[in-house]
Amino acid sequence: ESHRDDSIILTDTVNSILPLNFKEPLLIGQDSVHLGACGLVSQSDPGSDSEGRKFSKKQQKRRPSMETGEDGEDRPREHPFIVTEPGELARGKKNGLDYLFDLYEQCGRLLQEVQRISKERGEKCPTKVTNQVFRHAKHNGCGYINKPKMRHYVHCYALHCLDTEQSNNLRRLYKERGENVGAWRQACYHPLVAMARENDWDIEGLFTRNEKLRIWYVPTKLRQLCHSEKSRDSE
Amino acid sequence: ESHRDDSIILTDTVNSILPLNFKEPLLIGQDSVHLGACGLVSQSDPGSDSEGRKFSKKQQKRRPSMETGEDGEDRPREHPFIVTEPGELARGKKNGLDYLFDLYEQCGRLLQEVQRISKERGEKCPTKVTNQVFRHAKHNGCGYINKPKMRHYVHCYALHCLDTEQSNNLRRLYKERGENVGAWRQACYHPLVAMARENDWDIEGLFTRNEKLRIWYVPTKLRQLCHSEKSRDSE
DNA sequence: AACCCGGGCGACCATCGGACGCTGGTGCC
DNA sequence: GGCACCAGCGTCCGATGGTCGCCCGGGTT
C-alpha cells in the first residue's frame, strides 16, 4: 500500500519487502548431551494454570505428508525439560534448565539483530521480544525457539535473573523432591510475588529495571498473582 | 448532544482561546497551553455560533451486510480545522490549531486516567495512546476525539512540542499565504526531518525524550521521510 | 509391547496499530 | 440554492500478543 495523501517530496520508497531474515549464526549449543540425571519421577499437581476463559473449539490437523511450501521438513519436537540443578546436564531425552535459560539469552541476541536490521531500514524498532523476533529465529535456524514455549517459562527466567541464588535453591529443592517441571514452574511464581511486594507491587518495574528482563513482557498470570496478593495484603 | 465550544478550565489567569469541548471528564491538568497571552476573554459559550442545527442529521450509513447493534446517537462531524496563528480563534464553522493541539493534551490526560485505572485493576498499563485510550475517550464524552484524526496530525503536534517557535512561524506563514490545512500539515514534516538530522536521525529518540510526545507513536510517514533523507545524505 | 503421564508448540482469537477513501459539511457565487 | 472542494472519521486489514489443548514423545510397567 502506499501513502497517497502523504505523497510529499522524497518519494523515495522505503522498500521493505524483504522478510526480516538474515543468515547469521548465533548458535548456542542446542545441547543434546544427556548426562547426569535424576530419574525421579513423582507426580505432583502442577496446579494447572487455568487462567483461560471460556471455551473454544478447534480442530488441529496433522500435517499432511505433502510438503507445503518450501519448508518441507518436519521438525521433531524438542525434548521436554526436566528440573535440573545449576550446572547439571539433563540425562536421557530431556533438556535441563540451564538450557532453558540459555534460550532466553538467545532470544535477546535475536532481538538485537532484529533491532539492528530495523534501524538500517528505517522501520520501527521493537524493544521487546515480538512475533517478528520469533519469526526471525525460525528463519535463522533457531526452529527450537517458539513463542508458546518462551512465554510459558518467562517468569522462571525472571526469577533466575532477579535472584539467581533463590532460583538455584528452588531448582535443587524441586529436583531433590522429584517434582516435575510443571510443579517447579508453578513454584517460581511465589518468590517473584514476594519480590514484587518488597517493591511496592511494581512487578513491571522489576522487569524493566533488569537489563535482561526488560525485553520480556510480564506474564499475565504473574501480574494477576501480584494484584490479588496486594489486595489480600491491604485487607 | 452539545457540541464543542465550552469553557475550558483556565490555568491561572491566562485564559484559553481554545474552544474546549463540553464535559471535561479529566482532571484538570495544567497543560501549559503556552498560548500567547492574547488577553482574550475566556470564551463562554457563544451559543449562537456553533450551535446550528446540527442534530438534524439522523441517517447513518448502512453497511449492506449488517448493522452493528447498539446504535448510538449520530454524532455530527467536527468542524474542519483551518490554519490559524497562535492565539487566534477560528471564525465560522471551523476549529483552530490551538484547539487541535489541545486535543493532544486531552489525550495525554485520558491516557493518565487509563493508566491509573489499569494499575488499580492489576492490568497491563499502556505507555502510549492506544485504542483503549480512544475507547475511554468516547465513553467519557470525548466523542470528538478519534484515532484517525489524532494520528493524522501527530507530527504537527510534534513540531509544536519540539520547536514551538518554528511551529508558530510556520502557522503564520501558511495562514498568510492562505494555504489550507492539508498544505500546512505537509509542511510540518520538513522542520522535523531537519531536527532528526541534527539528532543523528533518531526521530524515535526525539519523541521519547519529550515529555508530551513520548506517548505518541512516531508516524510511519515521518520515519520513512527521515530514512530516505538519511540515505540521500550519505550518498 | 502397552500404557499413560505431561508438556511442546501449532493454531486460534480478540484486539491492536495503521490506513484509505466515502461522505457530507462548508464557503463561495 | 447549487456547486466544488476537501477533510473528518467510519471502517477495513494484516499482524500482534496471548493462550489453549491436541498430539505424541518417553519413561514405566
TrEMBL record, chains A, B:
One example GO MF annotation: DNA binding
Domain of life: Eukaryota
Keywords from the named record: Activator, Developmental protein, DNA-binding, Nucleus, Transcription, Transcription regulation
GO biological process: regulation of DNA-templated transcription
Principal cellular location given in the protein's record: nucleus
GO (cellular component) term, any one: nucleus
Domain Floricaula/leafy DNA-binding C-terminal: 68-232
Compartments, record wording: Nucleus
Region of interest (Disordered), ranges: 40-83
Sequence similarity: Belongs to the FLO/LFY family.
Role: Probable transcription factor.
Protein name, as recorded: Floricaula/leafy-like transcription factor
